[in-house]
Amino acid sequence: MIDRPTERMRRRVLVWLTLILAVIVVYTIWCIFKVSIKQSKTWQSLANSQQLTSTTVSASRGTIYDSNGQVLAQSATVYTVYSDNYMLWEYINKKDDRLKEIQAAIAKETDKDKLDELTEQLKTTKDSNGTYNAALDFFAEKLGIERGELAGKLSDKSMRYVVLKKEVEKTDADEIEKFLSEQELDGIRCDPDTKRFYPQNSLAANVIGYTNYAGEGTYGLEAYYEEYLAGVDGRIVTAADKYGTEIPYKYKQSYDAQDGDSLHTNIDVNIQYYLKRALEDAVAQHSPLNRACGIIMNPKTGQVYAMETCYSYDPNKPAEISDAQMAAKLAMLPEDSQDYTDLQMSAWATQWSNKAISELYFPGSVFKVITGSAALEENAITLNDTFFCGTQIKVLDTTYHCWSDSDHGGQTLQEAMTNSCNPAFIQIGQRLGIDKFYQYLKAYGFTDTTGIDLPGEAYGLTRAYDNMTIVDLASESFGQTNKITPIQMITAYSAVINGGYLVTPQIVDRIIDCNGNIVKDFEPDIKRQVISEDTSAAMREILENVCITNQGSNCYIQGYRIGGKSGTSQKLDIDLTGKKDYVASYCAFAPADDPQVIMLVMVDDPQGDEFYGSQVAAPVCTQVLSNVLPYLGFIPEYTDEELAELDVSVPNVEYRPIDEAKMTIEALGLNVTVVGSGDTVLRQSPAGASVQRGGTVVLYTDTTTPEQMVTVPDVSGLSKEYARQLLHSVGLNMTTDGSAEENMSAVASEMTGMTVPVGTAIPVSFQQYVVNSQ
To answer: Among the four residues 72, 396, 693, 718, which has the most C-beta atoms within 10 Å?
Structure first.
């Protein structure tokens, strides 16, 4: 017999049951509190992720313009083609269901007309295999994807988002939509997106930069102003079913995208083009091993009108190697090799870098304007002091040579600058002293970056003040030892000639939002005054005289007042390899009395016999400024001597009275020879050609007199004046390409030895002697 539970046992069981129930209740309350209060956001987010789907609405990236409103970088609508494989296969499989429906209807149908209609539908309706193969064929061709690769992407029927191709143009997207409609297919979509276009191609590429596949700025302005250009993406949030598919007519919330701001730059595409073309000519002629670059800016405001590296790349296809020799080397290597990867990475890094701000060089004699201006400012020298050059000078145990084999003797600052004499500037540096020299090195900005609004600006490498010796002072005085960037050099040079003010170079003029409002306006940023207005004026005059005196080896353009200085620096690689590597540079400004434009050209390691700055870089400045100055509205003002040497265009005076024709031609400074006894000009030689003043025009007044013929003499090696005299002596005229200046010799004309009519204009080009080439 089983004992009944006692009262005590019942109470104990009741207590335990009560405790267990209490624990369960407390735990339940805690769980409810945790889920509903502490973890509410987490669970709400999870619920939203299952019940809602969102689509990103890309913000339109801001446009980059030049100073004239020309587009440098712009975004346009393209499409991303993707596949919802689950939905795609659902629709493909429906084809089989549709076939079965038609076949069943045919089996039951007795009406002939309806039977014919169903039979026709059966012929045109593809099964799942037919539909799938048609889709593979179409998309493989339209998207440029291998058929096997495409089949692999579509094979996983559970995938809801598989990108087939990005940046598909609208015309192709329209054809895709049409195909899907005709095939009654769903699951492949074309979502609008944006693509960055650079309509100027490689022009100013290193300044503009480019965007990566994520649409983010990489290099150049695109990277530096990413915060302004990018904008803020919007979103569309909608209700979704358990498969993540949007449910129409349910919940929908839109958050508009905020388009990016646009940049209006100081870059002028026309000036940029002049610079690019001239640099390409120089690179083609001198084959520098480490590219070339140039900068054109306003020395007073710091506005950068042009900045070019040659060669660079096309930002529309930045991964394409632009250097033909490098591309050829890559083509010879296996693509899966480490050597290929290393060389490709090196080539990319080189072509994407902006040489004008990121690479260092020894400035050479261009730096002499810094030493000279500092010494004048500190009254360490006067304009009348002289400095002796005996072709070399010794500082402690180090001997420094002048570029010239002939001693310059005693020279003033003007003469030393004109002669580009190293021993003279070593003496000027010694007068200035280490303390003052370093003070101006700092004041001119060589120990810091310029602050230009571009990423990747490098710091210069200068000798620390505490370690500087008189030997260092000697070499730094004429532009060796310290390595700087081209942007540092042109910024400091600007301060020398603009009144003494160190100005921050600026690429962007203003930032405008999508509604046309000014977000930011950049005013000229003057950091400090380095030298006085008087010292600056003296330096402008000195540098203008350099160009006037050495016309053939400097930047000299008839009708314009130009100042400038060449530089030829020797790389320190000679100490390590025994190979002589040089950097040729030139800095010019105009007008010399009131500078509005300054430009610096640097050609890194030119090959061949010509490597001086006057031979390699100065012609680039001449070519560019000859176009830029008239473009900017500067009117040439010729001296009497220049007017006498200008070419004139011979007017057509045929069928005019002989006296009137003679008067017209002689008024232009040309001589006239009349052949025949008639009263009217029937033909002339030359007609319409440009010839130099003092030339002869032959006028024929009857048809019976034959043209007088002469042989074109050889003028090669002659100066401009002797070449002209020789041609004039046989009755011929000379026309030049504008290159004929002092210290230049004629190149043999292509017409040498030919028999031509008297009065013919003979084209003659000139090349320069090597004089004062530093």
So the answer is: 72
